[in-house]
Design a protein that fits this description.
The complex is a heterodimer of chains A (332) and B (347).
Chain A lengths: L9 E14 L4 E16 L4 E5 L6 H8 L7 E6 L8 E2 L5 H7 L3 E4 L13 H11 L5 H14 L16 H13 L5 E5 L7 H18 L2 E5 L3 H7 L2 E6 L2 E7 H6 L4 H8 L50 E2 L5 E2 L6
Parallel strand pairs in A: 3-8, 3-9, 6-7, 7-8
Antiparallel strand pairs in A: 1-2, 1-4, 4-5, 9-10, 10-12, 11-12
Helix pairs in contact in A: 3-4, 3-5, 4-5
Chain B lengths: L2 H4 L15 E14 L2 E14 L3 E5 L6 H9 L7 E10 L2 E2 L5 H10 L1 E4 L3 H4 L6 H13 L3 H14 L5 H4 L9 H13 L5 E5 L7 H18 L2 E5 L3 H7 L2 E6 L2 E7 H6 L4 H8 L39 H5 L5 E2 L7 E2 L4 H5 L2
Parallel strand pairs in B: 3-8, 3-9, 6-7, 7-8
Antiparallel strand pairs in B: 1-2, 1-4, 4-5, 9-10, 10-12, 11-12
The chains are: A alpha/beta (332), B alpha/beta (347).
The complex binds adenosine-5'-triphosphate (2 copies), iron/sulfur cluster (2 copies) and magnesium ion (MG) (2 copies).
Chain lengths: 332, 347
């Protein structure tokens, strides 16, 4: 897949999202959850960047903060609508300006059941963004909705049906059609295929790839299924406790992982080949709380090769060449 | 983990020597739901066997009847709307469908235990995890309170929960998802069941925690010689843990085999399609193979073969006649329900 790395479409620098923790009768602020704590990444045009990591590491928060569905605590996100356009920092825009930008930047949610209003027909759900912006109305709106339904492989007649009449895979297609209505440039897919059956998942993944080719879409693909990630991504960022610990081309991450956490994560994937059965190497222990992350390298409480210095200082990101980098003391 | 135990039964269609005795045999089970919208034939002729000391993996798409079959074994299907319409569930040779409530309660506590799909909702949020394990062993094993507490701590230790003496007094919400699932396993294992039914025990968990839980379940199985019915839609999990596999589609078993044999030589067009849709097995840049269409509704299955609406090699015969689940060849353990096995192999 071709990517224009020279001028990335989005450059995220030092993104932070801290949630305040309140306690007691006076709801005093007693601390914060550093859900995303200094994350930087780029997404090129027509590129798919996946964000992976265990539950609670901040993937969803990063995706939502980028689109300012929740307000980021800090950082910047330079966005260029075309390669030649002057970059705008999404985090500096007013709410009003941001709302306009969101036509370019869409999101598909995890839950194909919860993300559609049960009382609105799928046709109206898909057409709503077009109607609200006065882009299309009447029969033209209807045509656009039918076109979108066909695009995601649904029959146009289903426009008048309600979400409960659809299967999970079909609902996910409706969600995709809705996200596509405004011809976005980037879609954040937050566990967009996770709830689907294997065979339906394959249909939706193929669809996402076709749409990428057709509309030069970029994706930020958030998922915990690493075999899907390997298949769909150009690049992968591995998060642990609010930070990116390793990032690189998909091949680099899967064939030549450098960070001990990435290695552990990959070795835990069950292989769908019983003849290659081997002891899964589990990480011991659970993810520590992001309220009070371990000092030094956040991963040291579970890292099999941790040293003294790992408990003392957070490792700098080490450039491993060709766009591959990782934050581990052993690499420097 | 002993590799030999899991690969003992020789690959190949024929039943291997030294085959283990059956513990649970489901034969032609039908569990239907009578609802206002009509009859949902959720389980409509399911046949499979779980052998002693072995794991049977049950796979298939959402809604194909995996959970309802398991709930039928436990006799936990709500009736009404559920109703047993036929078949037998033989456990140690006795039909569970003929047991009364009291007998069934005894079996549920002592012989068969189940881990449910939703670990959070299956634990009672207002009781400590210790109370919940203690309740089980006091009820079923007649232990007194002190002995039950000892047992609870011991079980938490065995499922790998750190500082069990402290955790025993904590509430479910104080534990992480992985720890809650361990507690569920501890409760299920507390009475040393002969059969553990695990319904998607790792689906809600991270791969890292999943690996811990799968290793734990394997270890416990080896130590206790327990049998396991493992329901999942993750073929990777099946490949890692199962000895035998039953593939379900639309309320029926369409293929049953030893695990290595099934992965090496799948025969049913649905099984073949399922394997082909795995991103793992696709080469780079290649489009994923998909099974077109969607799973038919349990209220209205197609006539004949239920897979025919999605099957690339369906013929008129497939619409007219339902294919029976039969051995690949005389005496083979590998069974398949398809009229056109020769054509399927060319898929
Ligand atoms: N509104 C909120 N208030 C306080 N804490 C929050 C809030 N939203 C998320 N968090 C916390 O931030 C951390 C990151 O959560 P997030 O949902 O981004 O994780 P995730 O990587 O998407 O996990 P998952 O794989 O489970 O979806 C978690 O510790 C979570 O509890
Ligand atoms: N109480 C009920 N009343 C009516 N129909 C039911 C009831 N319980 C289950 N069903 C139906 O029975 C069918 C089989 O459901 P089951 O829960 O066994 O599927 P499953 O294979 O476990 O799927 P999943 O992978 O989604 O857990 C479904 O069509 C479901 O809608
Ligand atoms: S910095 Fe130390 S603790 Fe962190 S991953 Fe590297 S070796 Fe492990
Ligand atoms: S019986 Fe016919 S429709 Fe069914 S799987 Fe075989 S070929 Fe396909
Ligand atoms: Mg999330
Ligand atoms: Mg189920």
């Amino acid at each position: 897949m071709s990517t224009e790395r020279s001028t990335p479409m989005i450059e995220v620098k030092d993104l932070r999202k801290w949630f305040p923790i309140h306690a007691g009768v006076l709801s005093r602020r007693v601390g914060e959850v550093k859900a995303v704590d200094g994350v930087s990444f780029n997404v090129g045009r027509k590129e798919t960047l996946s964000i992976v990591g265990e539950s609670g590491c901040g993937k969803t928060t990063a995706g939502r903060a980028l689109l300012r569905l929740i307000e980021p605590t800090g950082g910047s996100a330079l966005y260029r609508s075309t390669p030649d356009a002057a970059p705008v920092d999404l985090f500096q825009l007013s709410q009003e300006e941001m709302r306009a930008r969101r036509d370019d930047l869409q999101i598909i949610f995890q839950d194909p059941y919860g993300s559609l209003n049960p009382r609105i027909t799928v046709g109206n759900a898909i057409g709503e963004p077009l109607a609200v912006r006065g882009i299309a109305e009447g029969s033209e709106l209807q045509d656009r909705v039918e076109e979108l339904l066909k695009l995601v492989g649904l029959r146009p007649e289903v426009a008048n049906r309600y979400p409960h009449e659809f299967s999970g895979g079909q609902r996910q297609r409706v969600g995709i059609a809705r996200a596509l209505a405004l011809r976005p440039k980037l879609i954040v897919c937050d566990e967009a295929v996770s709830a689907l059956d294997v065979s339906i998942q394959a249909q939706v993944i193929n669809l996402l790839k076709d749409l990428q080719d057709e509309f030069n879409l970029s994706y930020i693909f958030i998922a915990h299924d690493l075999s899907v990630v390997r298949y769909i991504s150009d690049r992968v960022a591995v998060m642990y406790l609010g930070r990116i610990v390793e990032t690189g081309e998909t091949k680099q991450i899967f064939d030549d992982p450098q960070h001990p956490y990435t290695k552990a994560l990959l070795s835990a994937i069950p292989s769908p080949d019983p003849s290659k059965r081997s002891e899964l190497i589990p990480l011991t222990g659970d993810v520590p709380s992001p309220i009070n992350p371990p000092a030094g390298c956040h991963f040291h409480t579970r890292c099999a090769v941790a040293e003294e210095r790992c408990r003392e200082s957070y490792p700098e990101s080490v450039d491993l060449g060709a766009g591959h980098s990782a934050s581990c003391h052993l690499l420097s | 983990m002993s590799q030999d135990q899991r690969t003992e039964s020789a690959p190949g269609g024929a039943a291997s020597e030294g085959e283990r005795e059956a513990l649970l045999q489901i034969e032609g089970l039908r569990t239907w739901f009578h609802t206002e919208e009509g009859i949902a034939k959720a389980v409509d002729g399911v046949t499979y066997t779980v052998r002693k000391g072995e794991t049977l993996g049950v796979v298939g798409e959402s809604g194909c009847g995996k959970s309802v079959t398991a709930l039928s074994v436990m006799q936990l299907v709500p009736t009404p709307p559920g109703k047993f319409e036929g078949g037998r569930i033989l456990f140690r040779g006795e039909d569970l469908l003929e047991k009364n409530l009291e007998e069934m309660q005894k079996i549920r506590g002592n012989d068969i235990a189940m881990i449910f799909q939703e670990p959070m909702s299956a634990l009672n949020p207002v009781y400590t995890v210790g109370d919940q394990i203690m309740e089980t062993v006091m009820l079923h094993q007649g232990l007194d309170k002190a002995a039950a507490r000892e047992r609870a701590i011991d079980m938490l230790k065995r499922v790998g929960i750190p500082s069990p003496e402290q955790r025993v007094d904590e509430y479910p919400h104080q534990l992480s998802g992985g720890m809650r699932q361990r507690v569920m396993i501890a409760i299920a294992m507390a009475c040393d069941p002969a059969l553990l039914i695990a319904d998607e025990p790792t689906t809600a968990l991270d791969v890292t925690i999943q690996a811990q839980i799968l290793n734990l379940m394997r270890e416990l199985q080896e130590q206790e010689g327990m049998s396991m019915l493992l329901i999942t839609h993750d073929l990777g999990v099946v490949a890692e843990t199962a000895h035998h596999v039953a593939v379900m589609y639309a309320g029926k078993v369409v293929e049953y085999s030893e695990v290595n044999e099934l992965f090496a030589r799948p025969h049913h067009p649905y099984t073949i399609g399922l394997f082909r849709s795995l991103p793992d097995l696709a080469s780079e840049g290649e489009r994923l193979n998909t099974i077109p269409g969607i799973v038919p509704s349990a209220f209205n299955f197609p006539s004949g073969c239920r897979f025919r609406t999605r099957c690339p090699i369906a013929t008129e015969r497939c619409a007219a006649e339902e294919p029976p689940l039969v051995p690949l060849e005389e005496g083979a353990e590998h069974t398949v329900a398809c009229h056109h096995l020769k054509e399927a192999l060319e898929l």
